[in-house]
Amino acid sequence: MKLIDVGGRINEVISDGYLEWIIDTSDPLTLDLTCDGFSSVFINVKQSSTLSITMNVLENAGCTMLVWNNTNTSITFNEKYIVNKNSYLNLAYGECNAANSTRDTNVSLKESGATAVIKSASLCKNDKLFNITCTSHAPNTSGNMENYGVVLEGAHYKMEATGKIVKGAYGSSSHQTSRALTFDEHQKATIIPKLLIDENDVQASHATSVGQIDENQMIYLQSRGLTQKQVLSLITIGYLMPVAQFIDNEELQEKLKKEIESKVVESCSM
After folding, report:
1. The Cα angle at residue 171 between residues 170 and 177, in degrees rounded to 5
2. Residue 258: in which H helix or E strand, if any?
3. What is the DSSP code (8-state) at residue 266?
4. Can you give the C-alpha Rg of the chain in angstroms?
5. Cβ(206)–Cβ(176) under 8 Å?
6. Considering only CA atoms, which of 204, 182, 184, 181 is closest in space to residue 193?
7. Nearest 5°: phi and psi at 27?
8. Which DSSP string do the residues of 205-252 spell out, in sequence order?
9. Does residue 182 contact residue 209 with C-beta atoms inside 8 Å?
10. Apex CA 92: angle with CA 25 and CA 45, to 5°?
11. In which element (H, E) is residue 136 found?
């Protein structure tokens, strides 16, 4: 485990294995990362006003990274990732905190055989504003985005997800799914899916839903003896839990599972 408690710029080469970092600084921080092996990285952000991440995944390498936002004050994330030939980036975001956050993420599939999976799960008690773009710059690349938000009273969830395939990136694919769950009609959730396709020989799709819990689902679960608050908690946990299992580490998965369950029960019982 590595504690980063000062701001500034840090250069790091990531090789094989599992790494866990804790970010706990009030100053802006920039992480310049190079991945030259096959690694899993968990970044637990406890405090930071601005966190910038750049990563270059070298040829024939791969990184699975989960960024967990645990801050108590507003934070801005700025991220740029480059994925090179026959390499992969699996990237996930988890947020159950009560502070505002803004995230601007750009993933570039630079060379053939590059793939990216981008997932997010947010329990929104305040404002959560996402802008995620995944661009295929070369043939036979693949980008897949899955974003889920549960919006509580007084919160605002906005997801702008863009899949882009440039001219010449034939044989590539870009897919995205975004869903926002609200508990009543007064909660604010906005999803803006975009597909910018400049090549014919590609596969691309998007699916989006924003709305309240299905009434029939609610009635069925209550008929099984659950209270309304228990139903809301169970469905919310179902939206958020997959991100906790993103990294193949049992100890980490159990830790995040307990944290999600605790915060969901606390939030849905208010």
Report:
1. 110
2. helix 250-268
3. H
4. 19
5. yes
6. 204
7. -95, 155
8. EEEEEEEEPPHHHHHHHHHTT--HHHHHHHHHHHHHHHHHTSSS-HHH
9. no
10. 10
11. strand 127-136
Mean pLDDT in order along the chain per 10 residues (270 residues): 91 94 95 97 96 98 97 96 98 93 98 98 93 98 95 90 97 96 80 96 93 76 78 83 92 92 76
What is the Cα–Cα distance from 202 to 49, expressed in whole angstroms? 39
The rounded distance, in Å, linking the Cα atoms of 24 and 54 is: 19
Smallest CA-to-CA distance from 68 within 247, 197, 206, 222 is with 247
Kindly report whether the global pTM for this prediction surpasses the value 0.90. Answer: yes
The residue whose two tokens read 């952000």 is 45
One-letter amino acid at 88 equals: Y
Residue type, 9: R
pLDDT of residue 111: 98
CB neighbours of 224 closer than 8 A, spacing ≥ 6? none
Question: Tokens at residue 177, please?
Answer: 């799914």
